[in-house]
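User: For a reading group we're discussing how well predicted structures match intuition. Take Membrane protein. Before you show the prediction, I'll give you the sequence so everyone sees exactly what went in.
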Amino acid sequence: MLHLRVISPAEDTDEAVARLRSHPGTAHLVVHRGAAVEPAGDLVEADIAREAADEVLELLCGLGLDHDGAITLEALDTALSDAAERAEEAAPGEGANAVVWEELLSRTGEESQLNVTFLAFLTIACLLASVGVITDSPVTIVGAMVVGPEFGPLAALAVGFVLRRGDLMRRAGFALGVGFPVAMVVTALVTLLSVAVGLLDVGEFRGGARPQVDFVYEVGWYSLIVALLAGAAGMLAMTSAKSAALVGVFISVTTVPAAGYAAVAAVTGDWTRSWHSVAQLAVNLAGIVVAASVVLAVRRRGPRGRVGPGSAG
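Assistant: Thanks. Here is the predicted 3D structure of Membrane protein, as structure tokens, for the group to look at:
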């Protein structure tokens, strides 16, 4: 179930309530007259089945409440009510399979922003990857995969492509296009510092075997296959109630590790492994976006695969 909160101008409240009552996926309808201060109006609350969310939002956006008032949604972990059970049974489909398109647009739009937090996480992840490369530590490499925030913009690219949202694609592309180079430059500078203070022996790195982390730069068909599977799983997780699966996506692709390896190898003059790492990064980024786009396009063609009028902005 999802909790719906609507701030409605007083003159639109009765129609909004009527539309909510007309939908079988709605339960626990409450109206607080004059409770809203900014924007001024009435506060309307209800619990709705996840699979009914798109239709309910479309009904409310049809009144212009997304412009003249406000509409918010939040997930409910527990709802003990016969009315809630009836609403979930009456709404067609399964809640775990339902795509709430407005939620997806909002989430990917937020995660595609280039900001200090995104740059910090990506840089820290690349630094962790560089430590894993230097010490031949797969555990540290996995830690870098989990910390990396790059899946948000990659998912935004897929959403923007499928929904024809050029603004979303531009923001996501800018975040990735600036974020990875910045993180790799910082990683290269820290690697140079490590060489200067004696923490890293260039000759030993270039000549030494690193069997535990060689997979990071070894590009092959399985690199693409894993990226495609990760992209598909990631988009399924983002468009359903199975968001916990995203952790598995983070630790299955070598985007951040490849970026970190490329920076370290470049500093040590090992250009072969550096370029192979860059190729690995490109293959993983492309594979994730392609698979995520395909999954999203298939889900959009389903019976509930549409975006309501409120998503245009």
